[in-house]
Amino acid sequence: MVYRGDKTSSQGSKELRKAWLAANKPACYFGDFDPAGVRIALAGKTYQSILLPKLDVLQKTATAAMLPNEQLKFLPNLAKQTDLTEEFQNYCQTLQGLKALRQQAMQGMELVEVELFRKEEY
Fold it and tell me: Rounded to 5 degrees, what angle do the CA atoms 43, 118, 113 make?
């Protein structure tokens, strides 16, 4: 678990992430469940999963107040994603309903690992 936080911590976490991925290690994202946070989780397919509360809990606790208006511009691209797991698509419907959940609000909640991308079939 790495806290990205402020600019100083952010630079160190970027370097750690780069080294981690170079070693071909799986990475799981944890952050705000809002359009910007999901955008980070999906960027470059470097994260395989995301930590979130169970779907029913997330749906009950997510609110419009936790979705900043400036992030609405990220929703159309999220809707265009075709390689997301069905489970994660179910989570994303909450965002499409204009509700989000900040990581601070997840305190004390049981978190589950949700796979982001469907496995490629060969």
Answer: 75
